[in-house]
Amino acid sequence: MKITVLTGAGISAESGIRTFRDSDGLWEGHDVMEVASPQGWNANPELVLDFYNQRRKQLLEVEPNAAHIALAELENDFDVQIITQNVDDLHERAGSTNVLHLHGELFKVRSTVISTTILDWKKELNKGDLCKDSYQLRPHIVWFGEDVPEMDNAIRLVRETDILIIIGTSMQVYPATSLLQFAPSESKIYFVDPKPTISSSERIIVFAEKASTGVIKVIETIKSNEL
Ligand code: APR
Q1: Torsion of CA 165, 168, 174, 180, to 10 degrees
Q2: What is the pLDDT of residue 119?
Q3: Residue 161 sits in which domain range?
């Protein structure tokens, strides 16, 4: 039984990382294009570096929550694949072993010129921090307007799944939101979000609640149906 899980910022909210589009969202005080686009990077790289330095520092201070942990434990009973829009590493720290990051990773940086040069990086990244070929390093984040190189892999995983669980995402950002349409017609879909943007239907069961409680209910439901 294959379970694919698509997560968004909401799953990390209870760990203390703010979501993007809730009222106290991360972008307050920052125009999205200023801090998360190639244009923003070209216009003011120091601002972008500072923004991600703050995100990286915050990530070092937070921990996975009950939802991340429950998904990691689900691997004991099922073939579980996580597809996350999040750039944090909380799924990995909770113990999930198959995690695909659609939008990059905060604890990685890459060369601005040689895109295959990707380095682990938990400290500050500053102007003058160079790759081995002497090019400036940048956050390993998929910015607005950039390609999503992992999208094809994500589509393949969703196409092969028996169950799709979607957690804590406003489903507003393309192409991630289009993944839903690739779920096989016979698959079951669960959606956990206190302000769900999808309604329940024959195929989709919505749990309109926080990830920490909703994920546990989804898992109980799956186990009572499948095991
Ligand atoms: N548990 C579950 N969901 C929650 C919780 C919680 N405790 N708190 C908030 N949410 C939900 C909100 O109701 C909202 O639907 O999390 C969702 C967060 O939505 P967004 O802020 O839009 O985040 P996300 O969908 O992950 O954004 C997608 O947009 O800015 C880009 O690249 C960025 O990966 C990000 C992408």
Answers
A1: 20
A2: 98
A3: 1-17+64-103+144-227
